[in-house]
């Protein structure tokens, strides 16, 4: 937090589950593909400090699956399940379908768990979607986003929550209200959970 940029979307923790070389996901692509859990449509726009679209920005995405586990923790998942790299459109917009992330406990069977118990804290992390925003001319922005209705927002074991990273998750009942480029637009079960995610780059 001491080293965070003075403006733009706040940064947050990287965590242990980021991988290099995640597969490319087309803008509008589908990471969910009918897997266990509730589908989530994320759409938004990336702009710079002047509000101009940040063409060429790459979003590196990773999160846990609907069973609460990251691919690296779960042999039943493909190694890059829910890991992706998405390049935003020239107007800065992007969309994708994923699974609604699930709150989970950090491992608490070792000294970290002992420390949390001594401090009277719990081991839960609120559900979150990890992201690295890689924009030309900018340092990478490492951050994560949380649904506003998560019961663990005020007790995050790793202190990752910032007010500017908490998003309303809504229910969309009208398929035609979903982004036009969404690959799963015509096949998603309705109503579907959706989140709007607008990003402002830090100063270059
Ligand atoms: Fe995480």
Descriptive notes:
The chain has one helix at residues 111-118; strands spanning 39-47, 58-62, 83-87, 93-99, 104-105, 124-125, 129-134, 141-147, 166-167, 169-172, 192-200. Strands 3-2-7-8-9 form a five-stranded mixed sheet, with no helix packed on it. It has a four-stranded mixed sheet with strand order 4-1-11-10, with no helix packed on it. The protein has 204 residues and is mainly beta. Helix content is 4%, strand content 28%. The chain has one helix and eleven strands. A hairpin with a 6-residue loop joins β7 and β8. The chain is globular. It has one domain (39-200): Aromatic compound dioxygenase (Protocatechuate 3,4-Dioxygenase, subunit A, Sandwich). The structure holds fe (ii) ion (FE2). Fe (ii) ion (FE2) is lined by residues 15, 17, 128, 130.
Question: How are the SSEs placed, and which strands pair?
Answer:
Elements: E1 39-47, E2 58-62, E3 83-87, E4 93-99, E5 104-105, H1 111-118, E6 124-125, E7 129-134, E8 141-147, E9 166-167, E10 169-172, E11 192-200
Parallel strand pairs: 1-11, 8-9
Antiparallel strand pairs: 1-4, 2-3, 2-7, 5-6, 7-8, 10-11
The structure holds fe (ii) ion.
């Amino acid at each position: 937090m001491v080293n965070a940029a003075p403006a733009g979307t706040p940064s947050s923790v990287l965590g242990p589950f980021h991988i290099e070389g995640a597969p490319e996901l087309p803008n509008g692509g589908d990471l969910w593909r009918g897997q266990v859990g509730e589908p989530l449509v994320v759409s938004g726009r990336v702009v710079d400090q002047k509000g101009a679209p940040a063409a060429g920005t790459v979003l590196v995405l990773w999160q846990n699956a609907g069973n609460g586990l990251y691919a690296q923790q779960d042999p039943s998942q493909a190694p890059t399940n829910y890991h992706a790299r998405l390049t935003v459109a020239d107007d800065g917009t992007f969309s994708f379908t994923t699974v609604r992330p699930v709150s989970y406990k950090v491992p608490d069977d070792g000294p970290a768990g002992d420390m949390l118990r001594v401090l009277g804290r719990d081991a839960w992390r609120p559900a979150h979607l990890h992201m690295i925003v890689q924009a030309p001319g900018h340092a990478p922005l490492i951050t994560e986003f949380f649904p506003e209705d998560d019961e663990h927002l005020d007790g995050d074991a790793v202190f990752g929550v910032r007010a500017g990273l908490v998003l309303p998750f809504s229910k969309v009942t009208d398929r035609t209200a979903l982004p036009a480029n969404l690959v799963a637009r015509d096949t998603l079960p309705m109503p579907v959970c959706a989140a709007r995610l607008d990003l402002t780059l830090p100063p270059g």
